[in-house]
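Format notes (please read before filing issues)

Several people have asked whether sequences and C-alpha coordinates are stored in separate files. They are not. Every record keeps both together, in the order shown below: the sequence lines, then the C-alpha coordinate lines. Line labels are part of the format and must not be stripped during preprocessing.
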Amino acid sequence: MSPIPQTAKLNAIIIIKNFELRLLKVFPKDFIIFTYLTDYFKYIYIKKKKNFTLKKLLIANWKMNLGCKEGATLANKFVKSLTRSNKKDFIILPSFQSIYHIKNKVLNKHLNLGAQDCSQFSLGAYTGDVSALMLKEIGCKYVLLGHSERRSMHNESNKILKEKINNAFSNNLKVIFCVGENISDYIKLNTKKVIRFQLSNIFDNQINFKNLIIAYEPVWAIGTNKTPTLEEINNVHYFIKQIFFKKYNVKNICVIYGGSVNYNNSKAIFNCKNVDGGLIGGASLKANDFKKIYDNLN
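Then the structure lines:
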Protein backbone atom coordinates (compact mmCIF):
# COMPACT_ATOMS: atom_id res chain seq x y z
CA MET A 1 0.00 0.00 0.00
CA SER A 2 1.37 3.41 -0.98
CA PRO A 3 1.64 6.21 1.59
CA ILE A 4 -0.99 8.94 1.52
CA PRO A 5 0.15 11.94 -0.61
CA GLN A 6 0.85 15.10 1.41
CA THR A 7 -2.09 17.11 -0.04
CA ALA A 8 -4.47 14.21 0.57
CA LYS A 9 -3.12 13.88 4.11
CA LEU A 10 -3.82 17.58 4.80
CA ASN A 11 -7.36 17.21 3.51
CA ALA A 12 -7.78 14.10 5.66
CA ILE A 13 -6.62 16.00 8.76
CA ILE A 14 -9.23 18.71 8.18
CA ILE A 15 -11.99 16.13 7.77
CA ILE A 16 -10.83 14.20 10.84
CA LYS A 17 -10.61 17.32 12.99
CA ASN A 18 -14.18 18.19 12.08
CA PHE A 19 -15.19 14.62 12.93
CA GLU A 20 -13.42 14.87 16.30
CA LEU A 21 -15.31 18.06 17.13
CA ARG A 22 -18.56 16.24 16.38
CA LEU A 23 -17.45 13.35 18.62
CA LEU A 24 -16.73 15.73 21.47
CA LYS A 25 -20.32 16.95 21.27
CA VAL A 26 -21.67 13.41 21.30
CA PHE A 27 -19.52 12.00 24.11
CA PRO A 28 -19.69 13.54 27.61
CA LYS A 29 -16.71 15.08 29.38
CA ASP A 30 -15.79 11.85 31.08
CA PHE A 31 -14.53 10.41 27.79
CA ILE A 32 -11.08 10.97 26.32
CA ILE A 33 -10.63 10.93 22.54
CA PHE A 34 -7.18 9.90 21.32
CA THR A 35 -6.22 10.29 17.66
CA TYR A 36 -3.19 9.07 15.76
CA LEU A 37 -2.36 9.70 12.09
CA THR A 38 -0.05 7.33 10.21
CA ASP A 39 0.99 7.34 6.57
CA TYR A 40 -1.83 4.91 5.87
CA PHE A 41 -4.64 5.30 8.37
CA LYS A 42 -6.11 7.64 10.93
CA TYR A 43 -6.95 5.89 14.19
CA ILE A 44 -9.51 7.27 16.61
CA TYR A 45 -9.61 5.73 20.07
CA ILE A 46 -12.27 6.61 22.61
CA LYS A 47 -11.69 5.75 26.27
CA LYS A 48 -13.92 6.39 29.25
CA LYS A 49 -12.35 8.08 32.25
CA LYS A 50 -12.61 6.28 35.58
CA ASN A 51 -14.68 8.98 37.21
CA PHE A 52 -16.92 8.88 40.29
CA THR A 53 -18.45 11.21 42.83
CA LEU A 54 -16.40 11.69 45.99
CA LYS A 55 -17.84 11.76 49.48
CA LYS A 56 -15.84 13.63 52.12
CA LEU A 57 -14.62 11.25 54.83
CA LEU A 58 -13.47 11.58 58.42
CA ILE A 59 -11.75 8.47 59.75
CA ALA A 60 -11.17 7.77 63.45
CA ASN A 61 -8.03 5.69 63.98
CA TRP A 62 -8.19 4.64 67.63
CA LYS A 63 -4.91 2.71 67.39
CA MET A 64 -4.27 0.52 70.51
CA ASN A 65 -6.68 2.50 72.67
CA LEU A 66 -10.13 1.77 74.12
CA GLY A 67 -11.40 -1.70 75.00
CA CYS A 68 -14.77 -3.15 74.03
CA LYS A 69 -16.89 -1.24 76.55
CA GLU A 70 -15.16 2.13 76.07
CA GLY A 71 -15.15 1.70 72.32
CA ALA A 72 -18.89 0.96 72.17
CA THR A 73 -19.64 3.97 74.38
CA LEU A 74 -17.64 6.32 72.14
CA ALA A 75 -19.02 4.83 68.93
CA ASN A 76 -22.55 5.39 70.27
CA LYS A 77 -21.72 9.04 70.91
CA PHE A 78 -20.45 9.38 67.35
CA VAL A 79 -23.61 7.85 65.89
CA LYS A 80 -25.89 10.11 67.96
CA SER A 81 -24.01 13.37 67.39
CA LEU A 82 -22.65 13.14 63.83
CA THR A 83 -24.94 13.67 60.84
CA ARG A 84 -24.25 11.50 57.83
CA SER A 85 -25.15 12.71 54.34
CA ASN A 86 -24.51 11.96 50.69
CA LYS A 87 -21.69 14.50 50.89
CA LYS A 88 -19.80 13.35 53.97
CA ASP A 89 -19.49 10.37 56.32
CA PHE A 90 -17.32 8.97 59.12
CA ILE A 91 -15.50 5.67 59.65
CA ILE A 92 -14.30 4.12 62.92
CA LEU A 93 -11.18 1.93 63.15
CA PRO A 94 -11.20 0.26 66.60
CA SER A 95 -8.77 -2.37 67.89
CA PHE A 96 -9.33 -5.88 66.50
CA GLN A 97 -11.05 -7.37 69.56
CA SER A 98 -13.50 -4.46 69.85
CA ILE A 99 -14.93 -4.48 66.34
CA TYR A 100 -17.51 -7.26 66.72
CA HIS A 101 -18.55 -6.03 70.18
CA ILE A 102 -19.10 -2.48 68.89
CA LYS A 103 -21.08 -3.76 65.91
CA ASN A 104 -23.44 -5.64 68.23
CA LYS A 105 -23.78 -2.83 70.77
CA VAL A 106 -24.22 0.02 68.28
CA LEU A 107 -27.26 -1.11 66.35
CA ASN A 108 -26.92 1.13 63.32
CA LYS A 109 -26.85 -0.45 59.87
CA HIS A 110 -25.00 2.56 58.48
CA LEU A 111 -22.12 2.32 60.96
CA ASN A 112 -18.83 2.17 59.04
CA LEU A 113 -16.36 -0.04 60.88
CA GLY A 114 -12.88 -0.95 59.76
CA ALA A 115 -9.70 -2.60 61.00
CA GLN A 116 -6.25 -1.09 61.42
CA ASP A 117 -4.51 -3.87 59.48
CA CYS A 118 -4.97 -7.30 57.91
CA SER A 119 -2.68 -10.19 57.01
CA GLN A 120 -1.06 -10.58 53.61
CA PHE A 121 -2.07 -14.24 53.84
CA SER A 122 -5.54 -15.63 53.19
CA LEU A 123 -5.43 -18.62 55.57
CA GLY A 124 -2.96 -20.87 57.31
CA ALA A 125 -0.37 -21.23 60.07
CA TYR A 126 0.32 -17.53 60.63
CA THR A 127 0.17 -17.07 64.40
CA GLY A 128 -1.27 -13.71 65.43
CA ASP A 129 -2.44 -12.72 61.95
CA VAL A 130 -6.03 -11.76 61.10
CA SER A 131 -7.18 -12.30 57.52
CA ALA A 132 -9.28 -9.97 55.38
CA LEU A 133 -12.00 -12.63 55.24
CA MET A 134 -12.18 -12.75 59.05
CA LEU A 135 -12.55 -8.96 59.16
CA LYS A 136 -15.36 -9.08 56.63
CA GLU A 137 -17.13 -11.77 58.68
CA ILE A 138 -17.24 -9.61 61.82
CA GLY A 139 -18.68 -6.59 60.00
CA CYS A 140 -15.74 -4.59 58.69
CA LYS A 141 -16.24 -2.50 55.59
CA TYR A 142 -12.76 -0.92 55.56
CA VAL A 143 -9.16 -1.73 56.41
CA LEU A 144 -6.25 0.63 57.03
CA LEU A 145 -2.99 -0.43 55.37
CA GLY A 146 0.49 1.03 55.08
CA HIS A 147 0.39 3.16 58.22
CA SER A 148 3.85 4.48 59.06
CA GLU A 149 3.81 2.78 62.47
CA ARG A 150 3.31 -0.58 60.74
CA ARG A 151 5.85 0.20 58.02
CA SER A 152 8.55 1.02 60.58
CA MET A 153 7.75 -1.37 63.44
CA HIS A 154 6.81 -4.37 61.30
CA ASN A 155 9.05 -3.78 58.26
CA GLU A 156 6.14 -3.76 55.82
CA SER A 157 7.51 -3.47 52.29
CA ASN A 158 5.67 -2.58 49.09
CA LYS A 159 5.54 -6.29 48.25
CA ILE A 160 3.84 -7.16 51.55
CA LEU A 161 1.46 -4.23 51.26
CA LYS A 162 0.45 -5.20 47.74
CA GLU A 163 -0.43 -8.69 48.97
CA LYS A 164 -2.49 -7.19 51.80
CA ILE A 165 -4.29 -4.86 49.40
CA ASN A 166 -5.13 -7.69 47.02
CA ASN A 167 -6.49 -9.80 49.89
CA ALA A 168 -8.57 -6.89 51.13
CA PHE A 169 -10.10 -6.18 47.73
CA SER A 170 -10.70 -9.90 47.13
CA ASN A 171 -12.86 -9.92 50.26
CA ASN A 172 -14.77 -6.75 49.34
CA LEU A 173 -13.08 -4.52 51.88
CA LYS A 174 -12.41 -0.89 51.02
CA VAL A 175 -8.78 0.10 51.53
CA ILE A 176 -7.42 3.19 53.28
CA PHE A 177 -3.78 3.29 52.18
CA CYS A 178 -1.29 5.51 54.01
CA VAL A 179 1.69 7.33 52.53
CA GLY A 180 3.99 9.97 53.96
CA GLU A 181 7.57 11.10 54.44
CA ASN A 182 9.75 11.29 57.57
CA ILE A 183 11.28 14.54 58.82
CA SER A 184 14.60 13.92 57.06
CA ASP A 185 12.94 13.52 53.66
CA TYR A 186 10.74 16.55 54.35
CA ILE A 187 13.76 18.74 55.09
CA LYS A 188 15.56 17.44 51.98
CA LEU A 189 12.46 18.23 49.85
CA ASN A 190 12.04 14.53 49.00
CA THR A 191 8.36 14.27 49.93
CA LYS A 192 7.12 13.63 46.40
CA LYS A 193 9.93 11.19 45.68
CA VAL A 194 9.04 9.15 48.78
CA ILE A 195 5.33 9.13 47.98
CA ARG A 196 5.91 8.15 44.37
CA PHE A 197 7.92 5.16 45.60
CA GLN A 198 5.28 4.22 48.19
CA LEU A 199 2.66 4.18 45.42
CA SER A 200 4.82 2.25 42.95
CA ASN A 201 3.86 -1.30 41.94
CA ILE A 202 1.13 -1.42 44.56
CA PHE A 203 -2.17 -1.29 42.68
CA ASP A 204 -3.46 -3.34 39.78
CA ASN A 205 -5.13 -1.39 37.02
CA GLN A 206 -8.31 -3.47 37.17
CA ILE A 207 -9.22 -2.67 40.79
CA ASN A 208 -12.26 -0.55 41.56
CA PHE A 209 -10.63 2.73 42.54
CA LYS A 210 -13.78 4.07 44.18
CA ASN A 211 -13.02 1.53 46.93
CA LEU A 212 -9.60 3.08 47.57
CA ILE A 213 -8.76 6.00 49.84
CA ILE A 214 -5.26 7.46 50.03
CA ALA A 215 -4.25 9.02 53.34
CA TYR A 216 -1.34 11.44 53.19
CA GLU A 217 0.12 11.42 56.70
CA PRO A 218 3.61 12.91 57.15
CA VAL A 219 5.38 10.74 59.71
CA TRP A 220 6.85 13.79 61.43
CA ALA A 221 3.39 15.31 61.93
CA ILE A 222 1.82 12.37 63.76
CA GLY A 223 1.10 13.33 67.38
CA THR A 224 3.52 16.29 67.32
CA ASN A 225 1.10 19.21 66.88
CA LYS A 226 3.09 20.13 63.79
CA THR A 227 1.73 20.11 60.24
CA PRO A 228 2.96 21.08 56.79
CA THR A 229 1.77 24.44 55.48
CA LEU A 230 -1.64 24.53 53.83
CA GLU A 231 0.05 25.06 50.48
CA GLU A 232 2.26 22.02 51.02
CA ILE A 233 -0.72 19.87 52.02
CA ASN A 234 -2.74 20.95 48.99
CA ASN A 235 0.18 20.46 46.60
CA VAL A 236 0.96 16.95 47.86
CA HIS A 237 -2.69 15.95 47.56
CA TYR A 238 -2.75 17.29 44.01
CA PHE A 239 0.47 15.38 43.26
CA ILE A 240 -1.11 12.12 44.48
CA LYS A 241 -4.26 12.71 42.43
CA GLN A 242 -2.13 13.33 39.34
CA ILE A 243 -0.27 10.05 39.85
CA PHE A 244 -3.57 8.15 39.75
CA PHE A 245 -4.86 10.14 36.81
CA LYS A 246 -1.74 9.63 34.71
CA LYS A 247 -1.09 6.00 35.62
CA TYR A 248 -4.60 4.60 36.08
CA ASN A 249 -6.78 7.20 34.34
CA VAL A 250 -8.63 7.86 37.63
CA LYS A 251 -9.82 11.43 37.65
CA ASN A 252 -10.74 11.99 41.29
CA ILE A 253 -9.18 9.51 43.69
CA CYS A 254 -10.10 10.23 47.32
CA VAL A 255 -7.10 11.71 49.17
CA ILE A 256 -7.39 12.65 52.85
CA TYR A 257 -4.92 14.27 55.24
CA GLY A 258 -3.68 12.95 58.60
CA GLY A 259 -1.15 14.19 61.13
CA SER A 260 -1.97 16.45 64.11
CA VAL A 261 -5.41 17.40 62.82
CA ASN A 262 -7.50 19.09 65.51
CA TYR A 263 -10.62 21.23 65.73
CA ASN A 264 -8.52 24.41 65.51
CA ASN A 265 -6.71 23.64 62.24
CA SER A 266 -9.16 21.24 60.58
CA LYS A 267 -11.34 23.83 58.87
CA ALA A 268 -8.39 25.43 57.08
CA ILE A 269 -7.02 22.02 56.07
CA PHE A 270 -10.39 20.80 54.78
CA ASN A 271 -10.81 24.01 52.79
CA CYS A 272 -7.79 23.05 50.68
CA LYS A 273 -9.07 22.27 47.20
CA ASN A 274 -7.50 18.81 46.92
CA VAL A 275 -8.19 17.55 50.46
CA ASP A 276 -11.14 15.11 50.68
CA GLY A 277 -11.22 14.52 54.43
CA GLY A 278 -9.08 13.50 57.38
CA LEU A 279 -7.48 10.58 59.20
CA ILE A 280 -7.72 11.46 62.89
CA GLY A 281 -5.72 9.84 65.69
CA GLY A 282 -5.67 11.34 69.19
CA ALA A 283 -8.53 13.77 68.60
CA SER A 284 -10.83 10.87 67.63
CA LEU A 285 -10.69 9.55 71.21
CA LYS A 286 -12.79 12.50 72.42
CA ALA A 287 -16.36 12.70 71.16
CA ASN A 288 -16.62 16.49 71.34
CA ASP A 289 -13.30 17.08 69.56
CA PHE A 290 -14.15 14.61 66.81
CA LYS A 291 -17.57 16.22 66.33
CA LYS A 292 -16.03 19.69 65.98
CA ILE A 293 -13.63 18.35 63.34
CA TYR A 294 -16.47 16.56 61.54
CA ASP A 295 -18.53 19.75 61.51
CA ASN A 296 -15.62 21.51 59.81
CA LEU A 297 -15.67 18.96 56.98
CA ASN A 298 -17.56 20.45 54.04
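For reference, the curators noted about this record: The longest helix spans residues 6-26. The two ends are 60 Å apart (CA to CA).
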